[in-house]
Amino acid sequence: MRFDIVTLFPDFFESPLQSGLLGKALAKKIAEVYLTNPRDFAFDKHRRVDDEPYGGGVGMLMKPEPIFAAVESLPVLPRREVIFVTPQGEPMQQPLLKEFVANLDQIVIICGHYEGIDERVLNLVTREVSLGDFVLTCGEIPALALLNGTIRLLPGAIGKEESLKLESFETGLLDYPQYTRPPVFREWGVPDVLRSGNHAEIDRWRMQQQIERTRTRRPDLYQDWLEQTGQLKSDEVNHESC
């Protein structure tokens, strides 16, 4: 899969793209990442990429011309999305990343700065995506999150692909707690069931932990899971009988 990041700060991505899973995936050509700076397409003598907003207001906006030129300079693969990362977009959730992997050959990500972008840039955009209900100083942070979350789902990126099926959100539930050596650290011990060797009991315990952890930490996900698995009515009955 090809990723094109349109960013005023290409240096932001240098270390992450050389480290860990991302670095390995790029080295194996599982994905390709290209960085394009809109400033290279600003042709006035000051190479300006921002200007004051019409109607007044605080701060500056990114101008449309350099962004359009930057995006239009890129190759166009058959299955492509042009994404603007913004708090106003749809939530960046696991099903969305899986959709990208299944359906796309190319993702172009436009990183905003200052107080935002000229609204006309959205004529380039096919999808707006949000990292969450908060504001950051730049679009590079959510762009990197999208990049990481998508590339790790590509075939060959994870050594044990089976582990992807056991992660949080894959079954609609959060992950279960996990432990490694030593069996006792300070006053905290590993649950006996995990050391029992009884795999049926371990699976049962893990499922119970997933359900309870999701119920207490993410009631919204828990309700969705109940509805999807048809357990909503039985759960209501169980709570009423407690």
Can you put this structure into words, describing what you see?
The chain has two domains: 2-151, Alpha/beta knot (3-Layer(aba) Sandwich); 167-241, Orthogonal Bundle (Trp Operon Repressor, Chain A). 20% of the residues are buried. The N and C termini lie far apart (51 Å). With 242 residues, the chain is α/β, with parallel strands linked by helices. The chain contains eight helices and nine strands. The chain has a five-stranded parallel β-sheet, sandwiched between helices. A two-stranded antiparallel sheet has the order 3-4. A two-stranded antiparallel ribbon has the order 8-9. The mean pLDDT is 92. 35% of the residues lie in helices and 16% in strands.
